[in-house]
Amino acid sequence: MSTTLIKHVEASLDAGMAGQIVIGLIALSTDVVTEYELRKMLPDDGVSISATRIETHNPITIENLQGHAHEIARAAELFVPREAVDVFAYGCTSGSALISQAKLEAELHRTAPGAKLTSPMTGAYKAFRNLGIARVSMLTPYPDEVTEAMIGCLRKGGISVVSCGSFHIENDYDIINVTPASIQAASQAINSSDAQAVFIPCTGLRTSSIIDYLEERLGKPVITAHQAMLWDALRLAGYTQPLTGLGTLFAT
């Protein structure tokens, strides 16, 4: 046993994180981008991100994406105390297109009864309604099977994809390395004059730094996965202040 004397000292306690809005991010095990992007987009004070992960597998297939649903409850259970989380965010665009909001909420509520939940697609649908958007040009990084499923999902949600482009990448580890400059150039290339907005799904893409630039060049709103999910999460938690640098959506 050590002979060093341990001196007990007084600690002052305050409310800790109680005054913060806490977003409980449920990220994919392969995702090293979403936390980085969301923290760049957060308000200067009053909002924080707490994250855990669910297992996912490559290649990116519909079957692998649909498997995320069974991981949601276990991921939410890792947030202790659960009541400290104001809203959960499932950070996968294609997964939230293939798994219904009702299914995701049912899984979440197994371990977090009554908790609020958003996702990139849930946020995107709300963003489209908020901005009166019914026609989009879409840029994805996905294989054609998943991109086609995204188009079908949007159609069911009342959104027409009038033009579409894809990087056709099958591996999450490669998606995270797509440069913002590539996303910027491809978005301009696939933009249609018939589209009311450009939609850039996938939380593996680094888009926060190019939203304003693209909107200025294209003359229309740009909706991205991180941006839409964060916008909805903040509003579900009661934060409605406009934020600069994040496009038309956050200016409303």
What does this structure look like?
The protein has a four-stranded parallel β-sheet, sandwiched between helices. The chain has two domains: 18-119 and 229-244, Rossmann fold, CATH 3.40.50; 122-224, Rossmann fold. The N and C termini lie far apart (62 Å). The radius of gyration is 19 Å and the shape is globular. The mean pLDDT is 92. With 252 residues, it is an alpha/beta fold. It is built from twelve helices and eight strands.
How would a crystallographer describe the biggest sheet?
A: 4 strands, parallel
Give the low-pLDDT segments.
none
The CATH architecture of the largest domain is 3-Layer(aba) Sandwich
By oligomeric state, this entry counts as single chain
Quick overview of this protein structure:
The protein is α/β, with parallel strands linked by helices. The protein has two domains: 18-119 and 229-244, 3-Layer(aba) Sandwich (Rossmann fold), CATH 3.40.50.12500; 122-224, Rossmann fold, CATH 3.40.50.1860. It contains twelve helices and eight strands.
Layout of SSEs?
Layout: E1 21-28, H1 34-41, E2 47-54, H2 62-66, H3 72-77, E3 87-90, H4 93-98, H5 101-108, E4 117-118, H6 120-131, E5 135-140, H7 144-156, E6 160-166, H8 172-175, H9 180-190, E7 197-200, H10 211-218, E8 222-224, H11 225-236, H12 248-251
Parallel strand pairs: 1-2, 1-3, 3-4, 5-6, 5-7, 7-8
Helix pairs in contact: 6-11
Q: What distinguishing features does this structure have?
A:
single chain, 252 residues, alpha/beta, Rossmann fold, 4-stranded parallel β-sheet
